[in-house]
Amino acid sequence: MNRTYAAIILLSFLSIITTCLGIALALNLREITPWAAAMSAEPQATGRSVRITVVYNNVPHAPGPATTWGFAAVIETGGGRVLFDTGGNGPILLANLQRLGIDPVSIDAVVLSHIHGEHTGGLDHFLGRHSKVTVYMPNSFPMPFRRMVERRAARDETVSGPRRLFANLHSTGEIGKGIKEQSLIIDTAQGLVVVTGCEHLGIIEIATAARGYLNKEIHLLMGGFHLPGLDEGKLRGMVQALRKLGIHKVAPSHCTGGAAMALFQNSWGSSFSGGGCGAIIEIPE
């Protein structure tokens, strides 16, 4: 009798334990299942954008950064941060970077368009603050300039023909006979973004070269277009030629000239963007 009674108690106890375990398992599955489903789900798109911040310009746009003769812009992509040109004054460049919330140490590379001081004058101060970068410059740059870069312990790399620098950033290569110049091409989901320094060769020529290099349409053409002093007839002809190239948006500044900028704004309308100091332009990457 004692053995039978003990067996009954043991079976009852095991039944209770089994029931409790079943309830606990069911409750746990309710919490685990959504978590497991989330972990196995397809990753969502990040919606990354190319972000261009004009950090040095004689044309004003936003209050805060100082405006003075020259040009520089910071381009942010999934591949990193690039400083395109350095303006003419190092302390102003660094101050403007700070005002616009950009740490110089976050810059991965510097690309210089051409040798003129309003585009290269800020480099020495910048490298004094942050030298762990590669400086891409046209092959025609003089040796003393390259030695200055090397003294700052930065890496210099010369560019001759059109080439990919890294990620979705490309150079047109140095173009021109007198003043040789390179422009930056960013390959985006919307099309090409072409950032120019001054374009002494001619803005039509550089737009044509950029378009032909990657065989894609230009979504945005921005920077210095070097058009001051041209009569209205020539300016209108240039605007019409750029329209025929199918350029979707423009953001001229720096050495473009007031009369030319007014014509660009009138021709492109809502597709004209201010490209002065402090301007921020974002394009889906």
Average pLDDT: 86
Which stretches of 5+ consecutive residues score pLDDT under 50? 4-46
Specify the helix fraction band: 25-40%
N-to-C CA distance: 82 Å
Q: List SSEs in N-to-C order.
A: HEEEHEHHEHEEEEEHEHEHE
Number of domains: 2
Biggest sheet layout: 7 strands, mixed
How do the strands and helices of this protein lay out in sequence?
Elements: H1 2-40, E1 49-57, E2 71-77, E3 80-84, H2 90-99, E4 109-111, H3 117-120, H4 123-129, E5 134-138, H5 143-151, E6 155-159, E7 163-166, E8 169-171, E9 184-188, E10 191-196, H6 203-214, E11 218-224, H7 232-244, E12 249-253, H8 258-268, E13 280-284
Parallel strand pairs: 3-4, 4-5, 5-6, 10-11, 11-12
Antiparallel strand pairs: 1-2, 1-13, 2-3, 7-8, 8-9, 9-10
Note down, in words, how this protein is organized:
- By secondary structure, the protein is α/β, with parallel strands linked by helices.
- The chain folds into 2 domains: 1-44; 49-284, Metallo-beta-lactamase, Chain A (4-Layer Sandwich).
- The protein is built from 8 helices and 13 strands.
- Strands 6-5-4-3-2-1-13 form a 7-stranded mixed beta sheet. A 6-stranded mixed beta sheet has the order 7-8-9-10-11-12.
- Strand 9 (184-188) and strand 10 form a beta hairpin.
- Helix 2 packs across helix 4 (123-129) and helix 7 (232-244) crosses helix 8.
- The protein is globular, with a radius of gyration of 29 Å.
- Residues 4-46 have low confidence and may be disordered.
